[in-house]
Amino acid sequence: MFSNTVEASNLLKFAHKLADGAGSAIQPYFRRRLSVSNKAGENLFDPVTEADKAAEATMRALISAEYPQHGVNGEEFPDKPADGPYTWVLDPIDGTRAFIMGLPVWGTLIGLTQNGAPVVGMMDQPYTRERFWAVEGGEAYFRDAYGEGVMRTRPCATLSEAVLAATAPDMFKGEDIGRFNALSEKTRMTRFGGDCYLYCMLAMGGLDLIAESSLKSFDIAPLVPIIRAAGGVVTTWDGGDPASGGSIIAAGDPHLHAEALKVLAG
Amino acid sequence: MFSNTVEASNLLKFAHKLADGAGSAIQPYFRRRLSVSNKAGENLFDPVTEADKAAEATMRALISAEYPQHGVNGEEFPDKPADGPYTWVLDPIDGTRAFIMGLPVWGTLIGLTQNGAPVVGMMDQPYTRERFWAVEGGEAYFRDAYGEGVMRTRPCATLSEAVLAATAPDMFKGEDIGRFNALSEKTRMTRFGGDCYLYCMLAMGGLDLIAESSLKSFDIAPLVPIIRAAGGVVTTWDGGDPASGGSIIAAGDPHLHAEALKVLAG
Q1: 3-state SS class at A98
Q2: pLDDT tens by residue, A71-117
Q3: Per-residue pLDDT for A212 more than 90?
Q4: B206 contacts in A (CB within 8 Å)?
Q5: Do B128 and A144 touch (CB under 8 A)?
Q6: Which residue in B has a C-alpha nearest to residue A128's C-alpha?
Q7: Are B167 and B195 in contact (CB under 8 A)?
Q8: CB–CB of A15/A110 below 8 Å?
Q9: Burial (CB count <10 Å: 0-12, 13-18, 19+), residue A260
Q10: Do A191 and B128 touch (CB under 8 A)?
Q11: Which of A192, A195, A253 to mutate to test the interface with B (most CBs of B within 10 A)?
Q12: ∠ at Cα A221 (A188, A241), nearest 5°?
């Protein structure tokens, strides 16, 4: 928890600055890549890796300039240890399959942890100009094509009424496959595809449940403050701390989370 | 084939007018629905059905006023028989699962058939302000956040290099399940989720192959002119006319289409 609200406000403002920088770095590669790729020939140019690296380098440069004592954990470069409590957790392009196809359901994830606990979270979609964010202890906010506002999850206490989502069926391995299928069979509807976008739609009240597997810390830690501030619950499948990744379950309604945990426990 | 280019131009202009009307009818229900739904209580208000009906009614009214002799086949209301060669094929919201979750990967499909053959096709995404369209015999066009232009599929002749997509694994029934899985195993990557959006991204060169099942005529007929004008091939899984729906295979590269047909034939 932040002891100082001025500090929290400054760190949130800085997260917005990181998102702006990442978006500017990524956009030249989204969809434009096609002509570049054809000119360069096969396999000489991987646009999603180039965009990932450009965005993470941009964010790391901003952090080094403003908060040199902060740590950085990102997908593309080695971890930078923190001198103090704060570490930024960055995933420049979450949803690489969507990105390479040209679908707008990917996002830039920016999280801040304090002694390992997620305290600021942000998801930015620069193509659609959508942004979702929260500071621990506050409300969850969105900005979309219709305006800005506070996000709240929707009530849905029973699995039979729940809308479930996951990024892809092939993300589940070993016994997780059967556990996910058991959960899916008890819900009203399951949809695949969406990555970080799904957690923001859960925060906005568009769906009830997300069950995923094989997540990295930077895939989920930046989303934890958003889900919690909107009224949702997010843990690992055995009810533990989600910030390190692994198999993750998020629910808009705490009662639904409890029901889902029972099924996932087998 | 249009015998008269002035007529083709007028019908394309009119398709844009239909898309504008449908978008205005749908947008009040997208994401806004959440508060409405909570106020109205459970099951009293189905926003996607309301939006579907409002958009189709808007398009039918425009067609009756401008082209009273044209037929209309839509998802929400009974077919209106044509007095002459032309019938409009309308799917106001293709991608209802995405719509209800708040994801922007749904679209309004507007097609025109001439004696049963698709001659004009359009996909409109009013939230992101994206539009994709083509007239048979012409080029395929897009308008997105970066501008307007001509779309071309990308070359990819071999399954092992192909990016495959489908809307959902549960759309395949019976022996189609094994056939789709056999195709998926031979490709480089498979992604689920996207509906009509996938076909437009194929036309834009973002992916190589789409295999789907259980499609209705209005799910695919409006996309056929777009895929073909961009250089792609679209048929049923046994190589037949795709305009009536069923099991559909679309490829950006004609060689890849031939390879995929061999696998789907078993």
Answers
A1: helix
A2: 999 988 999 999 999 999 999 999 999 999 999 999 999 999 999 99
A3: yes
A4: 31, 34, 100-103
A5: no
A6: B128
A7: yes
A8: yes
A9: buried
A10: no
A11: A192
A12: 75
When pLDDT is averaged across residues A168-189 and rounded to a whole number, the result is 94
Least Cα separation, residue B64 to chain A (angstroms): 32
Rounded to a whole number, what is the distance in Å from the CA of A85 to chain B's nearest CA? 36
Please give the pLDDT value at position A3: 64
Local confidence band at A203 (pLDDT 50, 70, 90 cut-offs):
very high
pLDDT in tens, A49-74: 899 999 999 999 999 999 999 999 99
Which residues does residue A165 pair with via DSSP β-bridges, in sequence order?
Answer: A191, A210
Q: Residues B179-183: contacts with CB within 8 Å, 24+ apart? A: B179/B237, B179/B263, B179/B264, B179/B266, B180/B211, B180/B213, B182/B263, B182/B264, B182/B266, B183/B159, B183/B209, B183/B211, B183/B260, B183/B263, B183/B264
Spatial strand order of the sheet with A233-236 comes to A189-192, A163-166, A209-215, A246-251, A233-236
**Residue B45's pLDDT is what?**
60
Which tens digits make up the pLDDT trace of A129-140?
999 999 999 999
Q: Do A101 and B206 touch (CB under 8 A)?
A: yes
Name the token pair of B102. Answer: 């708040």
Q: How confident is the model at residue A6 (pLDDT cuts 50, 70, 90)?
A: confident
Helix axes B175-186, B254-264, angle to 10 degrees: 140
Set of chain B residues whose Cβ sits within 8 Å of the Cβ of A103: 105, 194, 197, 201, 206
Q: Do A191 and B206 touch (CB under 8 A)?
A: no
Out of A34, A128, A190, closest to residue B128 by CB: A128
Query: Quick count: other Cβ atoms within 10 Å of Cβ A152?
Result: 19
Q: Quick one: DSSP state of residue A80? A: B
Say which of A31, A104, A192 has its CB closest to residue B193. A192
In this prediction, residues B230-257 reach a mean pLDDT of: 97
CA distance B167 to B224: 17
First to last CA, chain A: 34
Q: Around A48, how many Cα atoms within 13 Å sit in the side-chain half-sphere?
A: 17
Predicted-complex ipTM score: 0.92
- What are B222-243's pLDDT values in tens digits? 999 999 999 999 999 999 999 9
Residues of B in contact with A127 (CB under 8 A): 128, 145
